[in-house]
Amino acid sequence: MYKNLVESYIKRMSLADLEKYISKNYPSVSKDEVNIIYKYLKTRWQELYDEDTKVLEEIQKEVSENTYQEIKKLLAMAYQFKNR
Q1: Is 61 helix (H, G, I), strand (E, B) or coil?
Q2: How far is CA 39 from the centre of its chain?
Q3: pTM for the full model?
């Protein structure tokens, strides 16, 4: 059930939507990092949903350590919710 909701949301999500969310909640994230995050969400969301650590390893190489830690925190909360 959750997977279908996530898929639907990701399909509708625009770069502007993500930029707005990140600028409001994580102002230290750069525009380049927002583009990287958007790329991964749009193309690799299923692997992230399935908790594939390989994707996180790839993301870690492309964003700052601070941004990477924030991504891990968000995913941990999402996984906790999904797996309850």
Answers
A1: helix
A2: 9
A3: 0.92
What region, left, alpha or beta, does residue 13 occupy, with left being phi > 0 and alpha being psi -120 to 50 degrees? beta
Report CA torsion sign: 62, 63, 69, 75.
negative
| Phi, psi angle pair for 70, to nearest 5° | -65, -40
Work out the average pLDDT over 46-66: 97
Q: What angle do CA 73, 74, 78 make, to 5 degrees?
A: 115
**Spatial CA neighbour of 2 closest among 80, 56, 68:** 80
CA distance 44 to 65: 20
Structure-token pair, residue 76 = 């941990």
In angstroms, the Cα distances linking 35 to 30, 55, 79 are 9, 16, 23
pLDDT digits (tens, 9 = 90+) for 36-48: 999 999 999 999 9
